[in-house]
Design brief:
326 residues, alpha/beta
């Protein structure tokens, strides 16, 4: 391999792909436009068990890159787990200085990688992410997404306003591949890693070609996976909220009893019954939440294998499309 100068970094650009080969030529072409002497790019396309094949003839000239390769997974793991496998493989090789994760579909512009890497170079101990600004999806999607972000904040106390587009050091990657949360949700893992976060506002673009395969069910599961990464915080908030609401209901129940016993006023029977049933229901909800919280905490004693330990089990083949000569 060609040697690097002291100022150059070897950067791994990881992009998952599932039958998105039509987007890859434009992705590589746009990425080649920012390739310069500051960093050497190695593009790693994680083929998430695609049913179609890439036609190499469609690819542009990739001489600007240090290497271009495809990690072919033995089965379809899903978008987030494909990222986890790519990250773990990059860390295990011990050849890179920094990592960029980005989707291949063009909604995140490869040209913006330069901005993220510049910020990451200035703040090497931080993870730099693309903060979602304007989006190009339909109004219904944006409405549900806004509702989801509000729900996520209420349940976790954190703002989730970024996706998979990020730049960070190899040390940060080494930390994240040891976290089992990476299997399910990359942005949530970034937040749970406790690594300082820098957000750069960027607009989302329309896909380069084709339509997204992310249906409503997949989007809901993706959102639930993010919430599940903070399940300890979620249960605490739900328990506190239930106790708070239950205290109000108990107060009104007590007030109704006192009014009936100490005054000549009469309280409607249906109101008293409704308050009683509401209080009983809240006690049941509280009991269930406490039990489930203990079960979730006890499950931590059996930690699932992190991506770093099992990555090789999922890689079926590594295909080199281009590599710089020695």
């Amino acid at each position: 391999m060609q040697e690097r100068s002291d100022s150059q970094r070897r950067v791994a650009v990881i992009t998952p792909a599932y039958n998105d080969w039509a987007c890859l030529p434009a992705f590589l072409d746009n990425l080649a436009g920012i390739a310069d002497s500051w960093d050497q790019f190695s593009v790693i396309v994680v083929d998430d068990g695609s049913s179609s094949e890439l036609d190499p003839i469609t690819l542009p000239d990739v001489a600007q890159f240090y290497s271009v390769e495809i990690l072919r997974l033995g089965c379809n793991l899903g978008h987030q787990r494909a990222i986890a496998v790519g990250l773990a493989e990059v860390v295990n090789r011990q050849q890179f200085d920094a990592v960029v994760t980005i989707d291949v579909d063009g909604e995140d512009r490869p040209q913006d990688i330069a901005s993220l890497l510049a910020a990451q170079r200035a703040h090497p101990d931080s993870i730099v992410v693309a903060q979602r600004r304007a989006r190009s999806e339909a109004i219904r999607f944006r409405l549900f997404y806004a509702m989801y972000k509000k729900l996520f904040y209420l349940l976790t106390g954190k703002h989730l306003d970024f996706g998979n587009f990020a730049a960070f050091s190899i040390e940060a990657a080494q930390r994240m591949v040891l976290m089992s949360e990476l299997w399910n949700h990359f942005p949530a893992t970034v937040m749970r890693s406790k690594i300082p976060l820098i957000k750069i506002p960027l607009d989302r673009q329309p896909r380069t070609t084709g339509v997204s395969r992310m249906n409503f069910s997949a989007l809901v599961n993706h959102g639930l996976a993010a919430i599940a990464a903070f399940i300890d915080t979620v249960f605490v908030r739900l328990i506190v909220t239930t106790i708070f609401v239950g205290s109000f209901v108990a107060f009104f129940c007590l007030a109704a009893v006192l009014v009936t016993l100490l005054t000549s006023l009469t309280i409607s029977g249906w109101l008293t019954m409704a308050l009683g049933f509401a209080l009983l229901g809240l006690f049941q909800v509280l009991a269930v939440l406490i039990i489930v919280s203990f079960l979730a905490l006890s499950a931590r004693s059996s930690i699932s294998p992190p991506p770093s330990e099992v990555v090789r089990s999922y890689i079926d083949e590594i295909e080199l499309l281009s590599v710089q000569p020695a």
